[in-house]
Write a structure and sequence with these properties.
- The complex is a heterodimer of chains A (about 650) and B (about 350).
- Chain A has about 650 residues and is mostly beta strands.
- Among the domains of chain A are: about 305-425, TM1070-like (Hypothetical Protein Tm1070, Chain: A, Sandwich); about 425-535, TM1070-like (Hypothetical Protein Tm1070, Chain: A, Sandwich); about 545-650.
- Chain A is about 0% helix and about 55% strand.
- The longest helix of chain A has 4 residues, at about 15-20.
- Chain A starts with a strand and ends in a 5-residue tail after the last strand.
- Chain B is an all-beta fold.
- Chain B has one helix at about 190-195; strands at about 1-5, 10-25, 30-40, 45-50, 65-70, 75, 90-100, 105-115, 115-120, 130-140, 145-155, 160-170, 175-180, 185-190, 205-225, 230-235, 235, 245, 250-255, 270-275, 280-290, 295-300, 305, 305-315, 315-325, 330-335, 340.
- In chain B, strands 1, 2, 3, 4, 5, 6, 7, 8 and 9 form a nine-stranded antiparallel sheet that branches.
- In chain B, strand 2 (about 10-25) and strand 3 form a beta hairpin.
- The interface between A and B is large, with 54 and 63 residues.
Chain lengths: ~650, ~350
């Protein structure tokens, strides 16, 4: 029995939120069931219901449905197989988006569940035999157990490949636990008797956690350095938002809050008394969704637009012959009236590792803030080099960013401006001109990765297009790499040229930044360029909201059918990714990320759920013309049932035509 | 990418705001190298280079075409002196090609060559959107350690009356300069602190605001006086100050190092017209002067705060004028000299 309710949208523009443009919508759950945990994926947002044998589902536009379950769920996550994986009393359950349930016994009470770095499901179990263990389950339901004493109820996959858990009282104190996939447990911090609750990985790479009865939010680096931020009320849920901030729920004070990496908290008070916001997740639609157990409602936050600029290269390093490299950074506020803020995050190169570190600064109207030797003075990371991200509150922010990296010597300074590149300029392929080698010059190449792990290939060609050498490097999310002397790095002989060309391509279509620094060996002066103008995507490139429809397909219109598409062009790496949810016989609320050029394209399309029982990717081809994207479907049989020939037509704008 | 007509077809135009082929002191030589790359895997592309010399170093070389085979890179060393046959000059360079061709990659560097090697700065190729009515350039420095040179290029077909105003890091006005720039003209103002009558701000940086009645491309080159190395900054759009200044009575004084005015003349009449975006007259100032000062000035119309530009006529002499306008003060630079007006 499913319940379908078209919710009444309640839009609140709260006083605290209005200043920064956060918009909160709330969607009632007409059955009256109280939502608990929440997760995003497979074309919807999913939530467990307290004491009710149903699974909640809400679409990005607010339509709530409930699917029957054999027992109430507790925590949930959408797996890499696009199924919902849920813990409950005695079981981990795999629930397809259509509601088919497969149960796997776990001999205990299941609590938090996440997708681990190995793509398996990891979850916490209080065993019926009074042991606490971390369970690992493969997508086909095979279970292994790691006993972890004193573990709390939630967990998160850290950026270091380990699992991180808030701990319960253990020998009289609360701690944060790091568990390696092999079961080695390390405990960090001492939070007294505070009851730790939610846990999330922030944009700064730290593991953040809340306390249900302590007035603090904490964070721990992957090396174990703990920091606390004092807040007024206990928080429960925590999620990393797409705006680079952490988002919190405060069940006792009916608030949700936005915590910047600099420690500033902005709160939004919900209208209804006793609404008890608890679970929160960042969804694929770019918004934050949270449960209100006391209302009962599902809340949605549209975070204020942010814009991040990346300065791909900064340094504070000692060079040879007494030369010292450093970077100066200037922030200028163009506004005549309003002060504004910027959050700066420094990430070290792989070769000079350090923990990411963030600083938030205010810039008064028409003020220039100058940070000399910014890596050392603002970030406290002398002896390192790497990129700096500058997050502003959005395209309307009046703050302007400039920087210079240079060498200082007795003869003065020698250096180069380093542009601040907006995040929309990130792309999976870069062409860098003027690569120089030989005795007079050397050339260093840098790559700054975005949020996706990627395999990056650097191809060096001579002026006639002949390949001189290649090199492939794997980059973790947000990792930065510099290859000194690109001729040597790609296995080429350094010859006395100044007109070689370096192409940098991301194998998974992941958007990234690349730069080339050419240094005069005699003077030490460098010139840094970040891709020649004209090689950026041309008109017809697309990234943004798309909607579409299926043609010639017998579709079960009431059921969700998420689709994922990856495209490539010109025989190069994947350059666009489409994620959609399908409702009403068409694809709605699709979001196309990456960039595509106008013209022919090819790639893979995956459709899951509904009557297509498998999710095997199938090769497709298509074309992009202005705001129209056509994909020819002639894949044969996907799995059990076949998708007939037809055309998937997508129109820019986000709704079905 | 900017659009222009090239042989009847839409062309992409990129502007490199500064190239040079100039001898310097002590055997130093300034030159610009240009790199072009055709990213197409199949089609050759023809690139047209159009050089616009600075007003102070005039030249008129014909446009040059170069053809790039697919996936080929081309380095043009000392492009102004060699291919464009204009040694002893400097100025902006336009790079155009048929829109849809390529894409064509463009990169350049202007630098000095000396016995100790080369030192210089990359100069990006800018799209048409870089031409603005209001621009701001950050990081200007003066004093013994650094000097800053500013450049402006008018790529359009309308004359531009422009104002360069230098502000301290805290927003205090240091100095301003009014200039006129015809279509296709470019100028460079060396040592903007001196040229704008501003005292260097010590180690602090200053901000250069460029406002104009027609879109212009600007840049700022900050030069280390010890090493000679330069860093070239490109502009961003400055905020449009929306608060209007009310019409009303103004008075002021006039300082003219050129002494165009005879201060003994008992009565001079001044008439200033200030332009808004698009060139329409937004405000008029009429005043009477004596003893090199003006009184009974009357403003009609409205002007926004910030930098204003227009023309000023005094006793029949007319010249471009411009300067920064705050709520109660207007500093107006002209070829005659500088007006200080107070509400």
């Amino acid at each position: 029995m499913s319940h379908l309710a078209r919710a009444t949208i309640v839009t609140l523009l709260c006083a605290a939120a209005a200043a920064s443009g956060q918009v909160v919508d709330e969607f009632p759950i007409s059955s009256g069931a109280k939502p608990l945990a929440i997760a995003s994926g497979a074309g919807a947002i999913w939530f467990t219901l307290d004491g009710v044998n149903r699974l909640g589902r809400i679409t990005p536009n607010g339509t709530v449905t409930e699917l029957p379950l054999p027992r109430p769920g507790r925590s949930l996550v959408v797996g890499p197989d696009d199924n919902i994986w849920m813990t409950s009393y005695g079981y981990v359950s795999r629930v397809t988006p259509r509601g088919n349930v497969a149960d796997f016994p776990i001999n205990g009470y299941g609590y938090g569940i996440v997708v681990g770095p190995d793509r398996a499901l990891w979850f916490l179990v209080y065993g019926f035999d009074d042991t606490t263990y971390l369970g690992r389950m493969t997508l086909d339901g095979r279970l292994t157990r790691l006993q972890v004493d004193g573990a709390g109820g939630s967990l998160v996959a850290g950026p270091d490949g380990n699992l991180w858990l808030p701990g319960e009282l253990y020998f009289g104190r609360s701690q944060i636990l790091r568990v390696t996939p092999g079961g080695e447990v390390t405990r960090f911090g001492d939070f007294g008797t505070a009851s730790l609750s939610g846990v999330a990985v922030g944009a700064d790479g730290r593991v953040w956690f809340t306390s249900l009865d302590g007035s603090f939010v904490g964070s721990v680096s992957t090396t174990g350095e703990v920091r606390l931020v004092e807040i007024a009320a206990p928080a429960q849920g925590i999620a990393a938002g797409p705006d680079g901030n952490l988002w919190l729920t405060f069940p006792l004070s009916r608030k949700v809050g936005r915590l910047s990496s600099g420690g500033e908290l902005q709160e939004i008070t919900l209208a209804q008394q006793g609404s008890r916001p608890s679970g929160i997740c960042a969804a694929y639609d770019g918004r934050l969704w949270f449960t209100e157990a006391g209302a009962p409602r599902i809340g949605r936050i549209q975070p204020a637009a942010t814009e991040t600029f990346t300065i791909p290269a900064a340094a504070s390093l000692q060079g040879a012959r007494g030369v010292r490299f450093r970077s100066d950074l200037l922030l200028f506020n163009r506004s005549h009236k309003e002060a504004d803020r910027a959050t700066l995050t420094y990430r070290c190169l792989r070769s000079t590792p350090c923990e990411p570190r963030s600083r938030s600064v205010a810039v008064e109207p028409r003020q220039t803030l100058a940070f000399e030797d910014v890596v050392a003075t603002l970030f406290g990371a002398p002896g390192t080099a790497g990129p700096i991200d500058v997050s502003l509150r959005g395209p309307a922010s009046p703050i302007q960013v400039t920087s210079r990296v240079y060498a200082t010597s007795e003869a003065g300074t020698f250096g180069t401006p380093v542009p601040a590149l907006t995040s929309s300029a990130a792309r999976p392929r870069w062409v860098l001109l003027g690569v120089a080698g030989g005795a007079r010059y050397r050339s260093n190449a840098g790559v700054v990765n975005g949020a996706q792990a990627s395999e990056v290939t650097l191809t060096l060609r001579d002026r006639d297009g002949a390949v001189l050498g290649t090199r492939t490097e794997g980059l973790e999310p947000f990792e930065a790499l510099q290859l000194d002397d690109v001729f040597a790095a790609v296995g080429a002989v350094s010859v006395d040229v100044r007109d070689a060309v370096l192409a940098v391509s991301a194998g998974a279509g992941a958007p990234l930044f690349a730069y080339l620094a050419v240094i005069d060996n005699a003077s030490g002066d460098s010139v840094l360029q970040t891709g020649a103008e004209g090689t950026s995507p041309r008109d017809g490139s697309v990234a943004g909201d798309w909607g579409g429809s299926f043609a010639a397909y017998d579709w079960d219109c009431e059921l969700p059918a998420p689709a994922n598409a990856r495209f490539d062009q010109h025989g190069e790496s994947v350059s666009g990714k489409l994620v959609t949810s399908a409702v009403i016989c068409g694809f709605a609320e699709g979001f196309l990320s990456g960039t595509l050029r106008a013209g022919e394209l090819s790639g893979y399309l995956e459709v899951t759920g509904a009557r297509v029982l498998g999710n095997l990717p199938t090769r497709v081809s298509g074309r992009l013309d202005g705001d129209r994207l056509e994909i020819d479907l002639n894949p044969g049989c996907l799995s059990v049932e076949c998708m007939p020939s037809g055309t998937l037509t997508l129109h820019r704008g986000g709704t079905n035509p | 990418m900017g659009g222009a007509m090239l042989s009847g077809l839409l062309a992409a135009v990129l502007t490199i705001p500064a190239v040079a082929s100039l001898p310097g002191v002590g055997g130093v030589r300034f030159q610009s190298d240009l790199w072009l790359y055709n990213d197409s895997a199949e089609d050759a592309v023809t690139v047209t280079l159009t050089y616009r010399c600075l007003r102070s170093l005039p030249c008129e070389p014909p446009p040059r075409e170069v053809r790039l085979a697919p996936q080929r890179s081309l380095l043009l060393e000392d492009v102004a002196g060699a291919l464009l046959e204009s040694p002893g000059t400097a100025g902006p360079l336009e790079v155009s090609f048929l829109d849809g061709a390529g894409p064509v990659g463009v990169a350049s560097r202007v630098y000095a060559s000396a016995a100790a090697g080369t030192f210089g700065t990359p100069v990006p190729a800018l799209t048409a959107s870089a031409a603005r009515l209001r621009s701001v350039l950050v990081g200007a420095r003066g004093g013994p350690a650094y000097r800053s040179n500013a450049g402006v290029y008018n790529p359009g077909t309308r004359p531009a009356a422009l104002v360069l105003a230098l502000y301290a890091a805290a927003g205090r006005l240091l100095g301003a300069l009014g200039e006129g720039l015809g279509p296709g003209q470019a100028l460079q103002v060396d040592d903007v602190f001196s040229a704008l009558g501003a005292a260097p701000a010590g180690d602090a940086t200053a901000v250069l605001a460029v406002s104009s009645t027609a879109p212009v491309v600007s840049y700022l080159a900050v030069v280390d006086n010890a090493s000679g190395d330069a860093v070239l900054q490109t502009p961003v759009e400055d905020e449009d100050v929306s608060s209007p200044v009310l019409a009303g009575a103004w008075s002021g004084r006039f300082e003219s190092p050129n002494l165009f005015l005879d201060c003994d003349v008992p009565e001079s009449a001044a008439h200033a017209e200030f332009l808004e975006t698009g060139g329409a007259v937004a405000a008029v100032l009429d005043a009477h002067g004596s003893d090199c000062g003006f009184r009974d000035g009357l403003f009609t119309g409205t002007l926004r705060g910030g930098a204003v530009a227009g023309t000023l006529a005094v006793d029949g002499w007319s010249a471009p004028a411009g300067g920064p306008l705050s709520g109660t003060e207007l500093m107006l630079d002209t070829a005659f000299g500088r007006f200080y007006l107070h509400r």
